[in-house]
Automatic annotation (TrEMBL):
<keyword id="KW-0560">Oxidoreductase</keyword>
<dbReference type="GO" id="GO:0005829">
    <property type="term" value="C:cytosol"/>
</dbReference>
<dbReference type="GO" id="GO:0003955">
    <property type="term" value="F:NAD(P)H dehydrogenase (quinone) activity"/>
</dbReference>
<protein>
    <recommendedName>
        <fullName>Flavodoxin-like fold domain-containing protein</fullName>
    </recommendedName>
</protein>
<dbReference type="Pfam" id="PF02525">
    <property type="entry name" value="Flavodoxin_2"/>
</dbReference>
<feature type="domain" description="Flavodoxin-like fold">
    <location>
        <begin position="1"/>
        <end position="186"/>
    </location>
</feature>
<comment type="similarity">
    <text>Belongs to the NAD(P)H dehydrogenase (quinone) family.</text>
</comment>
<dbReference type="InterPro" id="IPR051545">
    <property type="entry name" value="NAD(P)H_dehydrogenase_qn"/>
</dbReference>
<dbReference type="InterPro" id="IPR029039">
    <property type="entry name" value="Flavoprotein-like_sf"/>
</dbReference>
<dbReference type="InterPro" id="IPR003680">
    <property type="entry name" value="Flavodoxin_fold"/>
</dbReference>
């Protein structure tokens, strides 16, 4: 089984990086083949310019984007790790979807409507927040973020979301709680294996 982990965090010492490492290690322990795309370390260009905007609708995909698409094609599982920034994902992660999940690769339009072309793939999402669950859940911010990602992007492209795990209050928790939450990350990864 092939796993592609996509990390969007500028700080390699961040909790997000630790989540990414924990998930990567857990998959490797299970003998999965793991590839990682660390968008900041790669200097990924997230901006869909006029030129690539045209590419989005035509079939002239730039070489750097073709390379990303190859990795997605290779992967059985996609794992996305990112912090909440302004009630959504960081721009670099959003730009990854804008530029890599192109029409004709990730989806196409038919007479019956849009068709997801990444069917058969499954995804795990690990999203950290600064705010506590009790602040984000009652005004439905968590649900809105989850729907936009899981339905608006994953489901639209035919990808089944196995889990969208929020790790709350990361800025306020102590070292012990951080460790407990990293174990929860591993448990989520463990669940993936059990579904095979
Ligand atoms: C630009 C920016 C915007 C943010 N917006 C939110 C937000 O809308 N909601 C929230 O709960 N936390 C927000 N935060 C806090 C981050 O989500 C939090 O610092 C991060 O999840 C902690 O993980 P890290 O230590 O790996 O960075 C924001 C942080 C930054 C830098």
């Amino acid at each position: 089984m092939n796993v592609l982990i996509i990390l969007a965090h500028p700080n390699p010492e961040s909790y997000n990086a630790a989540i990414c490492d924990a998930a990567e290690q857990e998959f490797k322990d299970k003998q999965y083949n793991v590839r990682k795309r660390d968008l900041y370390r790669m200097n990924f260009n997230p901006v869909l310019t006029e030129n690539s905007y045209s590419h989005f609708y035509q079939d002239k995909i730039p070489a750097d984007i073709q390379a990303e698409q190859k990795d997605i094609t290779w992967a059985d599982f996609l794992v996305f790790v990112y912090p909440t920034w302004w009630s959504g994902m960081p721009a670099i992660m959003k730009g990854y979807f804008d530029r890599v999940f192109t029409n004709g690769f990730a989806f196409r339009y038919s007479d019956e409507g849009p068709v997801g072309l990444l069917k058969g793939k499954q995804a795990l999402i690990f999203q950290t927040t600064g705010l506590p669950e009790k602040v984000l859940k009652p005004p439905q911010i968590t649900m809105a973020m989850q729907a936009a990602f899981d339905i608006g992007i994953m489901d639209f492209c035919g990808i089944e979301v196995l889990a969208h795990k929020f790790l709350y209050s990361v800025e306020y928790i102590d070292e012990e709680t951080r460790k407990v939450m990293l174990n929860e990350v591993k448990e989520v990864v463990e669940m993936v294996g059990q579904q095979q």
